[in-house]
């Protein structure tokens, strides 16, 4: 039984939030994923919040929060700090509700997110090298002007709005047994937990954090929110150094488990969604799928993985795709020694072709302290079909007595 704690968001609040967003925001689709059935051990579905207005779930909470401001508060405008999804959610929600919005973003904010935030109607100010500086600037602006500061997760209206995702999941997949949710500050996780535990308490709600920005495990161990000293993850949308007290309380009450996933799992998940589900998602949005890939068979099916957002910078997308392909065994870099004689390189490339690998680039050098007289060092980067194929390529070269002196993924 869920304890009675004043900070806990209730099912009634989530249902009330749903009435607020109905007709304004989308009920996003739930798609069956055959590619995830094997790691899930049964039916697996994707809740496609990347197809929500502004490209993420964030507008749900932002719209509920701003809609409940008084007329006088809306007249003073709203202000937020964000590098991406929250900025866009606040900007569009404010525009729909007739309020002016100002968003403080780091100077390093990706240009597509900056342009989208402006297009949704916000005045954007670039401040600081990181979000922490932008956050301080936004709070100072609120104190100076009277604008209402819209926090990304530290408010019960925001949590209730995000929880409408949980209501939709239960309606779209009544047989669901586990819901995986990418987690940063815990607003989406808290809201889904409140909705799900209020209707189907036996359904497991699991938060998935990037290992390089996992603030909930130490917080839960300490019994109160604990801040991280540093963070390092490509999933900037869930890189939050410390939960709020309200999200900590709700996660403690409603969430069954928190797991952490590595960067390779996130890259593989993003690539899988792109290739198999035809879904463009950002690294934070892929965290839930990464949980399935990193912990196959751990969660009771049917499983629903929430794709929380799809606002990825095209440059980052190219880098992450490449990283994901490396993690999936699709790229292989080898250093091979061959005789320094005419035709040696051609014979090496022929051997690689016989092994079924595609050569992407080649570099060779005669200057290395480890080389014997009459040897050449060749670095080749190959496109392969997976980890087992990589092992076959290396075995084929060694069978032909090539000295494979280094293998780099």
Automatic annotation (TrEMBL):
Pathways per UniProt: Amino-acid biosynthesis; L-isoleucine biosynthesis; 2-oxobutanoate from L-threonine: step 1/1; Amino-acid degradation; L-threonine degradation via propanoate pathway; propanoate from L-threonine: step 1/4
GO MF, one annotated term: threonine deaminase activity
InterPro entries associated with the record: ACT-like_dom_sf, ACT_dom, ACT_ThrD-II-like, Ser/Thr_Dehydratase, Ser/Thr_deHydtase_PyrdxlP-BS, Thr_deHydtase_catblc, TrpB-like_PALP, TrpB-like_PALP_sf
Superkingdom as given in the UniProt entry: Bacteria
Membrane-traversing stretches: none
Pfam families associated with the record: ACT, PALP
Coiled coil: none
Gene3D superfamilies: 3.30.70.260, 3.40.50.1100
Signal peptide extent: none
Residues annotated as domain ACT: 333-409
One record GO biological process: L-serine catabolic process
Keyword set, alphabetical order: Allosteric enzyme, Amino-acid biosynthesis, Branched-chain amino acid biosynthesis, Isoleucine biosynthesis, Lyase, Pyridoxal phosphate
Catalytic activity: L-threonine = 2-oxobutanoate + NH4(+)
PROSITE patterns registered for this protein in UniProt: ACT (PS51671), DEHYDRATASE_SER_THR (PS00165)
Assigned EC number: 4.3.1.19
Cofactor(s) listed in the protein's UniProt record: pyridoxal 5'-phosphate
PANTHER family cross-referenced by the UniProt entry: L-THREONINE DEHYDRATASE CATABOLIC TDCB, THREONINE DEHYDRATASE, MITOCHONDRIAL-RELATED
Family: Belongs to the serine/threonine dehydratase family.
Quaternary data: In the native structure, TdcB is in a dimeric form, whereas in the TdcB-AMP complex, it exists in a tetrameric form (dimer of dimers).
Functional description taken from the UniProt entry: Catalyzes the anaerobic formation of alpha-ketobutyrate and ammonia from threonine in a two-step reaction. The first step involved a dehydration of threonine and a production of enamine intermediates (aminocrotonate), which tautomerizes to its imine form (iminobutyrate). Both intermediates are unstable and short-lived. The second step is the nonenzymatic hydrolysis of the enamine/imine intermediates to form 2-ketobutyrate and free ammonia. In the low water environment of the cell, the second step is accelerated by RidA.
Name of protein: L-threonine dehydratase catabolic TdcB
Organism of origin: Antricoccus suffuscus
Upper classification of the organism: Bacteria, Bacillati, Actinomycetota, Actinomycetes, Geodermatophilales
């Amino acid at each position: 039984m869920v304890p009675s704690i004043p900070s806990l968001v209730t099912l009634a609040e989530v249902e009330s939030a749903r009435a607020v967003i109905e007709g304004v925001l989308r009920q996003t689709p739930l798609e069956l994923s055959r590619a995830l059935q094997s790691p899930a051990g049964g039916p697996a579905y994707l809740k496609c919040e990347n197809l929500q207005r502004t490209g993420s779930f964030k507008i749900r909470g932002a719209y509920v929060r701003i809609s409940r401001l008084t007329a006088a508060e809306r007249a003073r405008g709203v202000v937020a700090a964000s590098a991406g999804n929250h900025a866009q959610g606040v900007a569009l929600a404010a525009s729909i509700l007739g309020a002016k919005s100002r968003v403080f973003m780091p100077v390093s904010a990706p240009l597509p997110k900056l342009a989208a935030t402006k297009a949704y109607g916000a005045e954007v100010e670039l401040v600081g090298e990181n979000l922490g500086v932008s956050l301080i600037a936004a709070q100072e602006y609120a104190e100076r002007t009277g604008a209402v500061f819209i926090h990304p997760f530290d408010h019960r209206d925001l949590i209730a709005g995000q929880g409408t995702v949980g209501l939709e999941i239960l309606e779209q997949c009544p047989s669901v047994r586990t819901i995986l949710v990418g987690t940063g500050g815990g607003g989406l996780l808290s809201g889904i937990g409140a909705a799900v535990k209020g209707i189907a308490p036996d359904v497991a709600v699991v938060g998935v954090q990037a290992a390089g920005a996992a603030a909930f495990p130490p917080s839960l161990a300490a019994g109160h929110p604990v801040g991280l000293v540093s963070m390092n993850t490509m999933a900037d949308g869930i890189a939050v150094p410390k939960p709020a007290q309200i999200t900590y309380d709700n996660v403690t009450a409603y969430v069954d488990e928190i797991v952490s996933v590595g960067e390779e799992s996130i890259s593989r998940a993003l690539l899988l969604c792109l290739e198999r589900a035809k879904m463009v998602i950002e690294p934070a949005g892929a965290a839930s799928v990464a949980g399935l890939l990193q912990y196959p068979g751990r969660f009771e099916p049917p499983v629903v993985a929430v794709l929380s957002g799809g606002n990825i910078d095209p440059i980052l997308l190219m880098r992450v795709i490449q990283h994901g392909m490396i993690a999936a065994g699709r790229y292989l870099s080898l250093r091979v020694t061959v005789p320094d004689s005419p035709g040696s390189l051609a014979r090496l490339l022929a051997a690689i072709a016989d092994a079924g690998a595609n050569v992407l680039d080649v570099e060779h050098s005669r200057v290395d302290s480890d080389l014997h007289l009459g040897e050449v060092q060749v670095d080749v980067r190959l496109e392969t079909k997976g980890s087992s194929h990589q092992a076959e390529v290396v075995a084929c070269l060694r069978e032909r007595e090539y000295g494979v002196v280094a293998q780099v993924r």
